[in-house]
Amino acid sequence: KIMSTKIEIKLRKSEERQWKKLEDDGLQDKVKQFNPQGSDPTVSKYPTSSHYTRNWDKLVSDIKQEEKDEKLDGDAALNQLFQKIYADAGEDTKKAMMKSFYESGGTVLSTNWNEVGKEKVDVKPPDGMEYKKWEV
Fold this sequence. Notes:
One of its GO terms (molecular function) is protein-folding chaperone binding. This is SGS domain-containing protein. Residues 45-136 form the SGS domain. The chain is mainly α. It has a domain at 75-117. It is 34% helix and 0% strand. The protein is built from four helices and no strands. It has helices at residues 56-69, 74-88, 91-103, 113-116. It is elongated, with a radius of gyration of 30 Å.
């Protein structure tokens, strides 16, 4: 029962015996652990109204494996490479990548914080291109 000042919960004893006191004396040897029979503790069960069950953890791991094994071409492969470098990098490398990319307008990407941290990163357009600064 839920009341404004308290909550009452009725529980059933696991063994039919008389308790001498309500509080435990601190001996953990007598405590029995509840282990539900027939359930696998490694598999998560999610509530569902479906007639069949799915192992969502397995589905997630399968999708991650497919993404890892996927072979990309061109810009997508280059973008994936930079994402992997950034994800696996340390704090200094991440700072260097962010600063160099931001200050150069996306034309330079450096992982060396000792070099990038000292001074502003200049814009270096690709070969055959020139940089134009647009004023708003």
